[in-house]
Amino acid sequence: MALLIIVITCIMIIFETSQPCNTPDDFVAITSPGHIMIGGLFAIHEKMLSSEDQPRRPQIQKCVGFEISAFLQALAMIHSIEMVNNSTLVPGVKLGYEIYDTCTEVTAAMAATLRFLSKFNYSRETVAFQCDYSSYMPRVKAIIGAGYSEISIAVSRMLNLQLMPQVSYESTAEILSDKIRFPSFLRTVPSDFYQTKAMAHLIQKSGWNWIGVITTDDDYGRLALNTFAVQAAANKVCIAFKEVLPAFLSDNSIEVRINQTLEKIIAEAHLLDMLKNVTFSDGKNSFHFDAHGDLNTGYDVVLWKEINGLMTIAKIAEYDLQSDVFIITNQETKSEFRKLKQILSKCSEECSPGQMKKTTGSQHICCYECVSCPENHYSNQTDMDHCLLCNNETHWAPVRSTMCFEKEVEYLNWNDSLALLLISLSLLGITFVLAIGIIFTRNLNTPVVKSSGGLMVCYVMLLCHALNFASTGFFIGEPQDFTCKTRQTLFGMSFTLCVSCILMKSLKILLAFSFDPKLKTFLKNLYKPVPIVFTCTGIQVVICTLWLILAAPAVEENISLPRVIILECEEGSILAFSTMLGYIAILAFICFIFAFKGRKLPENYNEAKFITFGMLIYFIAWITFIPVYATTFGKYLPAVEIIVILISNYGILCCTFFPKCYVILCKQKTNTKSAFLEMVYSYSSHSADSLAISHVSLDSNNCDLTTTNLRPGDKATSWLKGSHLQVQAFAGIGRGNTTNVSKTFHGKRSSSI
What we know:
alpha/beta, 6-stranded mixed β-sheet, rod-shaped
């Protein structure tokens, strides 16, 4: 009996839908009364005939092209409603249905939707306009359909007015997930977004990035292709070609379709708010609508495989929408997945860690070359688009590196061979200072020690030399704020004190052996030993104090080198540093001038000559230091200043004290009071004779000038006479003045010494 009813129904549907629509009832495909009416939209015919009338009349045309698949879906809906009516799901309530043929045309679907929205049990089938449809009673309570996304979009916009639930069984357009524009739309199939996402994920999981795409020439195919192109690009998959085939429908899984429709009809027995929260099961899986109105059914991954010339389709996995994973049910399908990975579908070989992709002239990003990461860059994964930059302040990386390496911290270490050599020379200098101090202490009352300014002056100078040698130790080792501040100020003040003492000694020597009365008076007024030393040193103390207060040296990490961090002392102020060194240079230059003037004094007791050499060594060392210090870079920069300090300190120490030690140790006969006085007397006599000769020469020149007025005839005679007189005058003055001057200067020098 049931079979007979279905056959009769089929004949009625085929016959009625092929006839032109004369009345509204003719437009209905099939209907059955009930307490709650459910509408249905199915594309039972594939198209609607175009009107031949010109101009075209506003009427629904005849449909042609019977679609068996849509017809079976309509039967599934009828069967599902009858199952509900014969069950105890809704006792005392009969479900009715009203099914329309959309003819795969939006116009026909809109006409059917107008009947759905008309008032229930109203004599005239009209849609009343109201501002509030909360109490409005439409003809049907819910709608099943449509199949095509284009039709579902148009129908849903009309149903939104009354928020009538609409459940589609095939519309997969991604836009329908927008609940702001389509609040009452639900579907039992996933959105195209998940389908294309699953496809892109499967391709990426197989290790492919160079593929071709085949799609159907309809809205579904074109929209899916666009969505898939976006998903593929996000997974770094390139589409080598796109092929569009004519649209067709081929589905042998009729039972699957019927089961899907059955699930929709059972769910449709409730209202919209209940539908959104409903959960049901088919015995194995649980289903529910998400926030977008999409059903969490997922996808089956099928494999097309040719066996003995026949194409077979086998299910190898399931795609879970929520977890975004592929579920493999058995080992056989797992092996099929492994075989997919063995298929090479790439435009270029993958880049190994330490390399990056460099795109070629191709328009596809999947076609590239692999180039090594440059210095200070790395890549730790395959096929990276670009290399990652290391933190240049703390890390570095060689070319084609897979990781960053921490920079080594470098400074002039105590274990460095150059540092050991320099500190050995400093210790040797301190040893020399101690030895000289012992020698001078043991020969305290000798003329050499007394002529050096006395033991106190020698001790002060030796202490300054020792501090200069000791200051080099602050340039070695890990820099600290204390060592950075101490090393320059210690050297600057100690070296200034040393040069100040030398300046005082230069003035004393020049004053003791000066024969010019005016110069002697000036030097006597200038020569104040203690004020000179304190003033010269005090100025340097002020310079260093201001330096430490306003811009003190501090530790700095120099990160400009690619692989190391240089720990160095930043001087704080180049101006202060230059002022300190410049002030020492000014004092040294004054010493050089005074010492140069007294370079011809008695040899064994004359410091001026050696002070001159010492100052020359100082100038040569520090003039050389400036360009070398400016061009040197790295951990050996402090060594440059150490070397200059040692050279200048050794130069002054050797030139100031070594000759005296030589006289004390090797020429003890000359280091007596009588020998000293004899040498001074000899020098004074020689200086007086030279002074007398210079006066005689001056008088002789005056005599020559008086002979220029002689007559021309007396030239020869006058010249001979003048010459004779000049020689006699020179001899007489020489004999007369030599004795007097010698006596005079001998008496003065003896008393001053």
